[in-house]
Amino acid sequence: MNTKQSFAIKGDICFCKTKDQWTTMKNAYAVCETGISQGVFAQLPEQYAHFPVYDFTGKLIIPGLVDLHMHAPQYAFRGMGMDLELMDWLGQQTFPEEAKYADLPYADKAYTIFADNIKHSATSHACLFATQHRAATELLMDRMEQTGMISFVGKVNMDREAPDNLRESSAEASAQETLRWLYEIAGKYQRTKPILTPRFIPSCTPELLAKLQIIQQEYKLPVQSHLSENTGEIAFVHELCPDARFYGDAYDAYGLFGRQHPKEHTYPAIMAHCVHSTEEEIKLLRDNGVFVAHCPASNTNLSSGIAPIRRYLENYMHVGLGSDIAGGHTESILRAVCDAVQVSKLYWRLVDDDAVPLTFCEAFYLATKGGGAFFGSVGSLERGYDFSAVVLDDSSLRHPFALTIPQRLERAAYSALDAYGICAKFVSGTLLFDRTHSK
Length: 439
What we know:
Elements: E1 7-18, E2 21-33, E3 36-41, E4 53-63, E5 65-71, H1 86-99, H2 104-119, E6 123-129, H3 134-147, E7 150-154, E8 156-157, H4 171-185, E9 192-194, E10 197-198, H5 206-219, E11 223-227, H6 231-240, H7 247-252, E12 269-273, H8 279-287, E13 291-294, H9 296-301, H10 309-314, E14 318-321, H11 333-350, H12 360-372, E15 389-392, H13 405-414, E16 422-427, E17 430-434
């Protein structure tokens, strides 16, 4: 992969500084200097006049999108089994497929397809679950590094409530495989990082969670898992962890739920779904700085419910979007933006008539700066941010009247333009592909 470059790109630029504010400029320049955005300008400033310019005049330029939650091994069966609820779906679809990743040739074939497709999507940064297979997880990290994207990848931990061919033999064995994985990947990648990944509370014994806490503190790793996704799952957690006040408390007891005390010890955490979080759980999510990965397609497909995202935003919580492949049926985060708006309308109509639905601007913010904050200064073209951008050619979407740039972007999202209309992608100052200027 090429080193970070300095250049400018020209086109119709659109991004969000806040969840309520679009920044747009037509025929403007976004400037990248050694991987970092220097801002957006109507005219190219003199100090950057010597930079090469990629001319995408007439095309939309947006920040690279951020996917906070997806399962790479499930990509092979996306769009199948969508008539099942979560726990049945895990048993009938997910676990049989994930067991195949003990076979490295199969894992290589599947992960190569996944990595190639995600490279050519609008996603620039992603958080990925692998499986509990150490060798296959390392293979996934190899493939993701080759894409040029920025990602966190986690070897899954699970020592209970799983099929025999997936369940790790003991908490000690799971911890030792995790340590071996961390040893083998140390210093190997520039753009691909490890993340601690207890699958969810039902699949991890207290002994395993205690060992993962020790590993987390030694390696200073972030954490990703699932939380309060489905009512049956929550009831099972209460049965397994009778001393926990609520689902999130079972993670927090082992330091796996974001910020801990003393406050200088902070290990960022992502919890996917949070559909049925209680008031106590919401307070702990906020107080610990946990990122909520909102996965609207998955929550609909698996009959889990509708997460109260408006309430989370009003509580100043960290919220981003996740495709949740393959509970979600597509890797498109632009699709997730539209889904987030749509399910928020259903929440308003069916659950809480005081809950204001999300605007398209707010949902797009979640897909960029909202989720991007997990990675640092990511998800914007403002000065000082990681320079990641996607160029969309919306010329095929003909219209009889003038549109604003946000209107063009909204229509592009709802028209699935990212399935065929991405013409270039930059991640952290590196050009991944350019279909326009390569002709």
